[in-house]
UniProtKB/TrEMBL annotation:
Membership in a protein family: Belongs to the bacterial diacylglycerol kinase family.
Cofactor binding note: Mn(2+), Zn(2+), Cd(2+) and Co(2+) support activity to lesser extents.
Protein name as annotated: Diacylglycerol kinase family protein
Active site: 67
């Protein structure tokens, strides 16, 4: 039993290491993570209902998982290719296209959830009427930009 728990703990350790490595080395992953944070903020400020917020969280998970898979495929392709290889290029392009499809549908879902329901208007109204929240949001932008572009491989 103790050996099984140790193996399980080790598998979680590997997963967290992969997540950390992707967060440090992949700018696009950091962009998606930052976007998820801002969308979550606007969902809260816009009083999005729990069902829609749950679906947004599912979108975040699918987007992050897609980016993680894309990174894994790119790394494997780079490891196998000794020079230019058309098949490797196609595999990497297809993996990137998968992330693009995920991102496109996440944006569409966000628009459908925020605009007709008035949640986007409520979020901006909350920021307008609570200047401290607006100030904190504005102050977070340079931090977010630093997070996205500041980490190096």
């Amino acid at each position: 039993m103790n050996k099984e728990i140790r193996k399980l703990r080790q598998s979680f350790s590997y997963a967290l290491h992969g997540l950390k490595m992707c967060m440090i080395t992949e700018r696009n992953f950091r962009i998606h993570l930052t976007a998820a944070c801002y969308v979550s903020l606007f969902a809260f400020l816009g009083r999005l209902d729990s069902v829609r917020y749950s679906i947004l969280c599912l979108c975040f998970a699918v987007m992050m998982a897609g980016e993680l898979m894309n990174t894994a495929i790119e790394r494997l392709c780079d490891k196998q290719a000794t020079g230019y290889d058309q098949t490797v290029k196609q595999a990497k392009d297809i993996a990137a296209a998968a992330v693009f499809v995920c991102a496109t549908f996440c944006v569409i879902i966000g628009i459908v959830f925020f605009v007709p329901s008035g949640a986007l208007f409520r979020a901006f109204h909350t920021l307008y009427t609570h200047l401290w929240a607006l100030g904190l949001t504005i102050l977070s932008v340079p931090i977010a930009i630093g997070f996205i572009f500041g980490l190096k491989k």
